[in-house]
Design brief:
By secondary structure, the chain is α/β, with parallel strands linked by helices. It is built from 16 helices and 19 strands. It is 33% helix and 21% strand. The protein is elongated.
Length: 505
């Protein structure tokens, strides 16, 4: 069934994870498997209450309006799997195999998946049944497992759900699998007592490996549910935060520190530093990692550059960092406002070094030339992640375009800086390749930090990287020729930027 050259099956136990987050992670895993950079995987997960409507289902399968179901605690998702409408919730084991079908036979794959569940039920003394033309597994007259699969270029996703200790009352809120007479049961109901979920998982993994021909002993990788201790920061001093906020509010200025939920805001505001964000607080792009508000921005504030310079003066900064939202609505992408801000700082605060962290200006060469002609001491533009993840993480950006922007600035003898987030699902090889690409583009400064999801609506964290790993990546970047590297779980683009630029001069 599977490529003989890939003997390993990686089992991922995600615990209790919202359905939307699990769906995003599945998409990333499918992309990795298609790119042949990962083994086959078996994901085991439970979901908070959610109703999913497959390709054959419809709104008519809901017995109450969607808003009513939402108030009862269940979200509704329309998904591209086969099948109709079903419920997922705590106490239900959901299995998502992400495997490459070498035989290219979905019917055989479905048969083997159902056989796996039937064997698990048999191990508990039940006599599972199948019904012709009705995918799933039954125990007597009641359905105990529902299946809905999909595949992209013969890599599978979605999967099968087995009711273990599930609250079966939720199935009264829908027409399960489009059949109003369908009865639903669970292992708990059939056996007359609660069943240990970890034991069910162990039996499922063992049976899945036997049926699909994988080695019987598999390492289970658990998804982190809590931030590790190195990401837990002490609460910032309220006085420092308030002083900075009063100053910024008085000058009607924004900072990326606040807009992007930077974890270092307490430290930086406490030191009297900030990264100024010009051109408003609404971004025209919808990157799936960023906390900055999305939507249509307001008009450009022509007095803003003077106020930024005044803030630099009041704070007695020696190094000013300026960034912005992406303004695809402007003919120059906002380049002119960057130039005006640079000029205002130099006029009001002579001797202050200036670092810009710019968007891609949709690749506009005139906009880039305008910025470069202003000669900021540091030209920054972040690639953010590895090339493979761009479609997921930065759908309207282009990896190669970002590299060309950095190369353009380097060719004009500017100090060029970029940054990478880790923990989005990238591989070690991809990070090395990205570091090499940045070096070839002329970057001399690099930051590497941990991706932290701003909310449940953003991409979930795939992995937390330890401080030791960051130290290794820093050495890797220095060995690749980078003159200045800042790497650590809490490092961000402008973290200790003044120290980095002072060491370059």
């Amino acid at each position: 069934m599977n490529d003989e050259s890939i003997q390993h099956l990686q089992v991922l136990d995600w615990g209790l994870l919202p359905y939307g987050e699990a769906l995003k992670l599945q998409e990333a895993l499918v992309s990795e498997r298609l790119a042949e950079i990962s083994p086959d995987r078996l994901v085991l997960v439970e979901h908070p209450p959610v109703i999913t409507i497959g390709r054959s289902g419809s709104q008519e399968d809901l017995r109450h309006p969607e808003a009513v179901l939402n108030t009862k605690g269940a979200l509704i998702f329309r998904v591209d799997r086969g099948g109709m409408t079903t419920f997922h919730g705590p106490g239900q084991l959901v299995a998502y195999p992400i495997i490459k079908l070498e035989a290219k036979d979905l019917h055989e794959y479905l048969r083997m998946l159902l056989e796996t569940v039937a064997a698990v039920l048999g191990s508990y003394g039940l006599d599972p049944e199948f019904k012709s033309g009705r995918p799933g597994v039954w125990s007597g007259a009641a359905k105990i497992a529902s299946v809905g699969i999909s595949a992209r270029k013969w890599v599978t996703y979605h999967g099968i759900a087995l009711n273990v200790n599930t609250d079966l009352d939720w199935f009264d809120e829908i027409t399960p699998c489009g059949n109003p007479l369908e009865k639903i049961t669970s292992l708990q109901r059939e056996l007359g007592h609660p069943v240990d979920m970890d034991e069910v998982k162990e039996r499922f993994i063992e049976t899945f490996c036997r049926v699909f021909g994988y080695p019987s002993r598999q390492e289970v990788v658990h998804r982190p549910t809590e931030r590790p201790p190195w990401l837990v920061l002490p609460a910032p001093e309220p006085e420092s935060l308030e002083r900075m906020r009063v100053l910024l509010a008085g000058l009607k200025l924004g900072t990326v520190c606040e807009s992007a939920d930077c974890p270092n805001i307490g430290e930086c505001f406490g030191r009297g530093t900030a990264t100024f964000m010009i051109l408003g607080d609404r971004c025209t792009r919808r990157c799936r990692f960023c906390a900055v508000h999305k939507g249509m921005p307001g008009p450009v504030d022509r007095c803003e550059p003077e106020r930024v310079a005044e803030a630099v003066k009041v704070l007695k900064l020696k190094h000013a960092v300026i960034t912005s939202v992406t303004r695809d609505d402007l003919p120059d992408g906002g380049a002119g406002q960057f130039v005006s801000t640079i000029e205002a700082i130099r006029r009001i605060c002579p001797g202050v070094t200036i670092e810009v962290l710019v968007p891609d200006f949709a690749g506009s060469l005139p906009a880039l030339q305008e910025i470069c002609d202003a000669r900021p001491e540091v030209f920054g533009h972040n690639v953010e992640t590895v090339e493979r993840l761009y479609a997921t993480v930065r759908p309207r950006a282009q990896y190669r375009r970002s590299l060309q922007i950095l190369e353009y600035a380097a060719c004009r003898d500017l100090i060029v800086k970029s940054g990478i987030m880790l923990g989005l699902g990238e591989t070690e090889g991809e990070v090395r390749e990205t570091i090499s690409d940045l070096g070839r583009s002329g970057c001399s400064s690099l930051t590497l930090g941990q991706y932290l999801a701003p909310s449940s609506d953003h991409l979930p964290v795939a992995r937390y990287i330890s401080p030791l790993e960051f130290r290794i990546w820093a050495e890797t970047a220095r060995s690749a020729g980078f003159r200045q590297v800042a790497a650590g779980p809490l490092v961000r683009s402008s973290y200790h930027a003044e120290e980095m630029v002072s060491r370059l001069n």
